[in-house]
Automatic annotation (TrEMBL):
Class of enzymatic activity (EC top level): oxidoreductase
Signal peptide segment: 1-22
Protein name as it appears in the record: Peptide methionine sulfoxide reductase MsrB
Binding residue positions for Zn(2+): 90, 93, 139, 142
UniProt-recorded Gene Ontology molecular function terms: peptide-methionine (R)-S-oxide reductase activity
Domain MsrB: 51-173
Key word Hydrolase present: no
Keyword tags: Metal-binding, Oxidoreductase, Signal, Zinc
Pfam entry (one): SelR
PROSITE patterns associated with the record: MSRB
Catalyzed chemical reaction(s): L-methionyl-[protein] + [thioredoxin]-disulfide + H2O = L-methionyl-(R)-S-oxide-[protein] + [thioredoxin]-dithiol
């Protein structure tokens, strides 16, 4: 009798783990962020993962730019010419980076902004690679490579944040917020 119940438990456990694997398979076919547990648009907590951990989580094009400091080909981002009203987030961790009203047409081939959402949303690092003196911009929450900032932007800042569209996520402003802005905040 005892043996029988042990066998029964063993069989049940096997079934259980089998259905779990099946579920996992489904979830990996879902959107990229479901795999990415650190992705959050609310959390301010810093994210510190190793490159091998990121490699498991991120799609290969995002990994190449965010962690290997790659650059997407110019004129390839759907955000390059976009004029939609909303917020741009880090595609790696969900950190809010830029508002669409600071986006401008730079003609350089990458989405360009003149100002980040806040001082802490971006980290600045000197970059001496490729025989150039540039300032690299990284996400303030997960330190992913985003692009570079140059001093030939429009007023009021005079800065041009040249950002790879692959590492950006965009969310349209909600209708209510849009109306609020149209009425000038009344
Ligand atoms: Zn990030």
């Amino acid at each position: 009798m005892k043996l029988l119940s042990i066998i029964l438990v063993a069989v049940l456990m096997q079934q259980c783990s089998f259905s779990q694997t099946a579920n996992n398979k489904n979830s990996t076919m879902d959107t990229t962020h479901k795999k990415n547990e650190v992705y959050s648009r609310e959390s301010k907590e810093k994210v510190n993962l190793s490159d091998s951990e990121w490699k498991k989580i991120l799609p290969s094009d995002v990994y190449y730019i965010a962690r290997e400091k790659g650059t997407e080909r110019p004129w390839t981002s759907k955000y390059e010419e976009s004029k939609e009203v909303g917020t741009y987030y880090c595609a790696v961790c969900g950190n809010p980076l830029f508002k669409s009203d600071t986006k401008f047409e730079s003609g350089c081939g990458w989405p360009s902004f003149y100002e980040p959402i806040s001082k802490t949303s971006i980290i600045y690092t000197p970059d001496h690679t490729h025989g150039m003196e540039r300032t690299e911009v990284q996400c303030g929450r997960c330190k992913s490579h985003l692009g570079h900032v140059f001093e030939d932007g429009p007023p009021p800042t005079g800065l041009r944040y040249c950002i790879n569209g692959v590492v950006l996520d965009f969310e349209k402003a909600k209708d209510a917020e849009k109306k609020y802005n149209e009425k000038g905040g009344q």
